[in-house]
Design brief:
Helix content is 33%, strand content 27%. By secondary structure, it is an alpha/beta fold.
Length: 234
């Protein structure tokens, strides 16, 4: 890697973790990532992409990092994992008006069509549990579209979404949160988001990033960032 050449960091618009506004990217996960790179003394550039494109690039290209990405057993060997940058909980939701839908188990959801983001951990999780793309699964390019298709398309019955994201996604879309019903918690899904880098990333940079993020957590700055953003969106 050439000296002072910026690391590419890919992400998607996913409020409140990362919030894209033109060329500017904010959000509390973004602030943690920026401070991690600054603490490591590594120049960087953040780019907003569709999640599927960001994920595929991070699998292949050198000196490229990605956030906020969930960590699973299947994904563990695919990236250098810098560390957790936020925590969450994931569930299956329907419209409250769909009184015909009642889920007791994940397998019950196979009676319906569920929308997920392509190459998201939820997509991979449902495929692993026997859901079929184009049959029980409807793939989207980003979370932004999720609530819109749930409300606007009669052939979409369910969505799988992070509970925190749902709150802000509803705010942005002008959708009443009370119009949605949680059908099933998914405790098996990873409950944290990470900063990760491609396996072709310089291992010296990876080590510096891991140390920098851990220092943010040790000195209380990480907790302060999360608290500040939580208060901002209450």
């Amino acid at each position: 890697m050439a000296a002072n050449q910026p690391i590419r960091i890919l992400t998607e618009h996913l409020p409140p973790y990362q919030i894209a506004n033109g060329t500017d990217v904010s959000g509390f996960a973004t602030e943690v990532v920026r401070k991690t790179f600054a603490g490591a003394g590594i120049p960087y550039e953040i780019e907003v992409q569709s999640w599927s494109r960001a994920y595929q690039l991070a699998l292949r290209q050198p000196n490229l990092c990605i956030y906020s990405i969930s960590k699973s057993a299947e994904r563990t060997p695919l990236f250098h994992w810098i560390g957790a940058i936020s925590y969450n909980h994931t569930s299956i939701y329907s419209l409250k008006s769909r009184t015909d839908i009642k889920l007791a188990t994940l397998q019950d959801a196979k009676k319906y069509v569920t929308a997920v983001t392509r190459d998201d951990i939820t997509h991979h999780y449902l495929v692993k549990n026997g859901f079929t793309e184009g049959k029980e699964l409807y793939l989207l390019e980003n979370v932004t579209m999720m609530l819109n298709v749930l409300q606007g398309r009669q052939d979409i019955d369910l969505v799988v979404i992070n509970d925190t994201i749902l709150k802000y996604r509803a705010q942005e879309s002008g959708i009443e949160i009370d119009s949605l019903k949680k059908q099933l918690d998914l405790p098996e899904l990873p409950l944290d988001f990470h900063l990760a880098c491609s396996l072709k990333t310089d291992p010296v940079l990876v080590s510096r990033l891991k140390l920098s993020l851990q220092q943010l957590k040790n000195n209380g700055e990480f907790a302060g960032i999360v608290k500040g953003w939580s208060e901002r969106f209450e």
